[in-house]
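Why do we bother with a discrete structure alphabet at all? Because it lets us treat a fold like text: something you can write down, compare, and reason about line by line. To make this less abstract, here is a complete entry for histidine kinase. Read it the way you would read a sentence in a foreign language you are learning: slowly, and without expecting to understand everything at once.
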Amino acid sequence: MNTFKNGKFNLSGESLTDNFELLTKALDASISGIIITDNNQPDNPIVYCNKAFELISGYQRSEIIGHNCRFLQKDDRAQAARQEISDCVKNGMECRVEIRNYRKNGDLFWNELYMSPVKDKSGQITHFIGVQNDITTRKKAEQDLRQQKDLMEKKIDERTAELRDSEAFLSSIIQTVRESLLVLDPQFNVLSANDHFLKTFKVTAEETVGKHLYELGNHQWDIPQLKELLMKILPTNNPVVDFEVEHDFPHIGRKLMLLNAYRVELEGQYKDQILLAIEDITDRREIERRKDDFLSIASHELKTPLTTIKGYIQALQRMVSTEAGDRFRTTLDKVAVYVERLNNLIAELLDVSRIQSGNIELHKTFFNFDAMVGETIDAMQISTPSHHFALKGSTKALIEGDESHLIQVINNLLSNAVKYSPESKEIFIHLSRVSEYVKVSVTDYGLGISPEDQKKVFERFFRVGDVQERFPGMGIGLYICDQIIKNHKGTLWVESNKGEGSTFSFTLPIGGGNTNGN
């Protein structure tokens, strides 16, 4: 029998586990997005989110857990609501704000957030719970009303002139751009094709304009997945971005084309049209393939003689007589150090080659995650006396993964923290367990990374422009780390402010990725 006493509802006859499962089901059934953050951990990471929050944000649970909820604002940091939320968290107060957020695909949505602290029996704040509702429709309606009022004040002749100017401007762009462009109506009939399209595909305007897109040539654009994407452009305003088509085209042979499609934002008779851009990337992709092949061959060819040189140096170090001078010993040791650096560089190039070819191998076993991190930090501390590494927290978790590859990730993050913080000698590492994931954060107080560069730091061969002259490197370490973490079904990200340092964090699923996403 259910009873209500002292303001609390009791499900008599049911276990705490049953009550918890019922609570979880109730939260997941809510149409409002619900998150819970852990106030006892640094930066209040999200430890729970329901299904509605995933739908609202567009992110999956694995991409949410461990992050601070401000990741939804991306680069839109100058909102007063952000400071209001921060003040409420700092003072342990509840609040209600309306804030601009961005879905995973970059779409803006307005969020109405109710946030309250959760306290334990002693009155200490342990968690915060946030209830979120998507109010984009309401905001859009308010904006539409304001815009409608402004539009009604304009004269008809000014509006007509603007439309004519827009048509002429669009037509001039289409004809002058050095890329194949088509303008389609809502039924995907070709309204116009620029000269570059006609020259590229060796067709005439009569063969193209007025024809259905899927009937052009030998029906090369009649692709089910492309159809599905194009059908979503007008009603949802979602563009088609970087859709690849490899096909044996009439007159020009086999080519690899990159398609991008956008809704044309004009009014009146020009409303609801689609601009389709088609780029021939056949030569570019072939150059990339040749570059990857060269990288693979060069790395393998350099590996064999370098291994031999390394062996000879080690032999010379063992054969040095007691009568050898200090200068000779020092020179030999320096040669050994630089050979080892070259060996590590070639190993990284081989890793990149394996990743690009899809041949990276993971040898997964269960191991003590905390012990692995601690031993890696101890080894780094011995080899890097110039900095102090402070480890806090623990996960007490057994992880199924490739231990050597994960050691490589942590070594790279620690090395980068040292490399880019020459003036600050403290490196902080924090371990925590968030839901069914372990989280590692490496923080330095060095140069920091600008918001623009943060989006590219995990790309292959990318290096931050203002530091590449001061700090040598090839820009492949973070790319390798990102690929290793992805192959372990985890996520790697960075938070940084220019001149204030950086925090690189990654999460890994406990149990080798056997998470159900609930």
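What the structure line is telling us, in plain words: Confidence is low (pLDDT under 50) at residues 1-13, 513-518. The radius of gyration is 29 Å.
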